[in-house]
Amino acid sequence: MPRATNILYLTILPMIHADGYTFGQVQQMLTLMPDKKFATRFFPDEVASYRQMFMNRQSYFIGGHVKSYDLFEEDQPDSRIIVRVEQHVE
Length: 90
Prior knowledge:
The protein is an alpha+beta fold. 16% of the residues lie in helices and 44% in strands. β3 (66-75) and β4 (81-89) form a beta hairpin. The protein is globular, with a radius of gyration of 15 Å.
């Protein structure tokens, strides 16, 4: 089977727990979205740490059809940066 690429975007989501155990706790979740309009627009001084966090954890997402990931920074007109993630599958 030939290799294919899924284009995704790095996104940071603020989360508030609404269950009966941790109700009201807050945290941030790093995830990938398939639509550029949901990409987080990082400031230049913070993008490297989020990229590194994903790169340090990508091995947990590799397996089955997913073979590897590549990350690319895309400069935005407002001087912020979005991160395009290429997920390589076969």
